[in-house]
Amino acid sequence: MTPKTTTPDGLVIVDKPSGFTSHDVVAKMRGIAKTRRVGHAGTLDPMATGVLVLGVEKATKLLGHLALTEKEYLGTVRLGQNTVTDDAEGEITSSTDASKITRAAVDTAVAKLTGDILQVPSKVSAIKINGVRSYKRARDGEDFEIPARPVTVSSFTVYDVRDAVAEDGTPVLDLVVSVVCSSGTYIRALARDLGADLGVGGHLTALRRTRVGPYKLDSAHTLDQLQQELTVMPIAEAAAAAFPRWDVDDRRAKLLGNGVRLEMPDEYAGAGAVAVFAPDGRFLALVEEHKGKTKSLAVFG
């Protein structure tokens, strides 16, 4: 009789292929890892490729906290055309000659979209408006508004500006860009708003996520590679990479395990989620400081 293999607790960093939804990747991973306990931290649109962080088994409890971390993207913005979805997946709604747009004008418009800004997500996003997904309302033909939300664009860099001609013959400009931003920032909304500011319209034609928090493309694996060999980042290693680390002694480890709220050192005040480790290296819990004491966010050890 073949012994039952146990799926390890940890993160799987996937290089998501184009055409897959984040849910498609989760479904595929359930088959590869032979467990139902798989989730993802932060979605990627079907068109986009790159880093998608999955949690397996107990590591699913980390995902909500990992989703809040900074993200980095490489993409292509086409100036001169608007689409229904603000990306290449949707039908074109307008075309305008963008050949006269100067690099200086592009840089000025990009600067306005850098820093702490208010952003209106795309109408075909997964944002919920009164409990209903925005994309469903849009699909049903509803007329509605999405309130602007504060996001942070730490950097928005244009690497190259290329003259191109769209399929309908319109002269357009393709910008190769990189963006570092907070969770909840829509890159296709940046493309739309950049085009709107320049008066010619804009949408996203390609997007690759190169980083989620500390997890980069160089540690990501394709689904085909994972099918051959499931590579799981142990939960302790994943937590140590993503959160401030607090090593406690045996006494405190036992108290924490018994639900006692510990006094937290001043250095962790306002640090957000903190990973607590036992002397033997076990990852015990994710906690945050509340009135000087630990408040458990998720317990592992």
UniProtKB/TrEMBL annotation:
Record's catalysed reaction(s): uridine(55) in tRNA = pseudouridine(55) in tRNA
Start and end residues of each tRNA pseudouridylate synthase B C-terminal domain: 188-230
UniProt cross-references to SUPFAM superfamilies, sorted A to Z: Pseudouridine synthase (SSF55120), PUA domain-like (SSF88697)
EC number in record: 5.4.99.25
Active site: 45
Keyword Ribosomal protein (UniProt): no
Domain Pseudouridine synthase II N-terminal: 31-187
InterPro entries referenced in this protein's UniProt entry, alphabetically: PsdUridine_synth_cat_dom_sf, PsdUridine_synth_N, PUA-like_sf, PUA_sf, tRNA_psdUridine_synth_fam2_C, tRNA_psdUridine_synth_TruB, TruB_C
Domain called tRNA pseudouridine synthase II TruB subfamily 2 C-terminal: residue spans: 243-300
Pfam families: TruB_C, TruB_C_2, TruB_N
One of the record's GO molecular function terms: tRNA pseudouridine(55) synthase activity
Superkingdom field: Bacteria
Task of the protein: Responsible for synthesis of pseudouridine from uracil-55 in the psi GC loop of transfer RNAs.
Protein family membership: Belongs to the pseudouridine synthase TruB family. Type 1 subfamily.
Name the UniProt record assigns to this protein: tRNA pseudouridine synthase B
Gene name of the record: truB
